[in-house]
Design brief:
Number of strands: 0
Number of domains: 2
Organism: uncultured Desulfobacteraceae bacterium
Largest sheet: none
Distance between the termini: 69 Å
Pfam families: Cytochrome_CBB3 (PF13442)
CATH superfamily of the largest domain: Cytochrome c-like domain
GO molecular function: electron transfer activity; heme binding; iron ion binding
InterPro entries: Cyt_c-like_dom, Cyt_c-like_dom_sf, Cyt_CIE
Keywords: Electron transport, Heme, Iron, Metal-binding, Signal, Transport
Radius of gyration: 21 Å
Strand content: under 5%
Helix content: 55-70%
Oligomer: single chain
Shape: elongated
Length: about 120
């Protein structure tokens, strides 16, 4: 009887740990690459102050604001890839566009703003 109780207790604990782990992974995966900022007003301000220098004219191959032909291939790679490129740098773009003083949240607002302008 004692052995049976230990087994039930072990299986219960193992089941709870498994469910919590799966829930945590599912939550992480469902949010992977999602941009947290939906404040497009703040995004526009950050864009104007920091991003427009390159993204208005397409300096060094950067996708121009509102140009669907240039943004569509990037968006097709998914949010996680786009976020990684934006935050860590990609090709000629330095991490966070060289503005390491901007918070991750504010930077995400600028990226969200740029994405919202794709025709």
């Amino acid at each position: 009887m004692r052995k049976k109780m230990k087994r039930v207790k072990f299986l219960t604990v193992a089941g709870v740990i498994s469910m919590v782990s799966i829930a945590a992974l599912t939550r992480f995966d469902s949010n992977a690459g999602a941009f947290e900022c939906r404040d497009l007003v703040e995004g526009e301000q950050i864009y104007a102050a920091s991003c427009a220098t390159c993204h208005d004219s397409g300096v060094a191959g950067s996708p121009r604001l509102g140009n669907a032909d240039e943004w569509t291939p990037l968006l097709a790679k998914g949010g996680a890839v786009l976020r990684s490129h934006a935050m860590r740098g990609f090709n000629a773009m330095p991490p966070k566009g060289g503005r390491l003083d901007i918070s991750d949240y504010a930077f995400e607002c600028a990226v969200s703003y740029m994405i919202s302008k794709v025709d």
